[in-house]
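Need tokens for this chain, all 118 residues.
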Amino acid sequence: MSSREKHRAAESEAGLFDLDYLYGLKKDVIDWCMEMNLIAKAYVCPTCGVKMVLTERDGSDGCSWVCRKFGVNAQHVRGTVRKGSWFGESKLSIPENLILTYLWTVAFTLCRKIIFLQ
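Here are the structure tokens for all 118 residues:
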């Protein structure tokens, strides 16, 4: 049994759940956000002007933009996938932001229906 499976088993025994279970892989969430135009599909390096590469990394979002230039003017520039989006200032991960936004929207809609019925 993998450590992830052990972790899930321990959470289920404790009555807890892992948010990863709700939204899947972080890379899939990033791809979906790009399809929905919530975050940029491409990013240009501010130093050299070349298109940056989306790379998987450890961290709250699981990905970042990277520009690696080798040679005489070598550089290594990293950028967040959140830059220029409404996720930019949040301390929550992108999936957590999406889940909270969804729950807030559902609750707001439900409250409006209740008020309308009264």
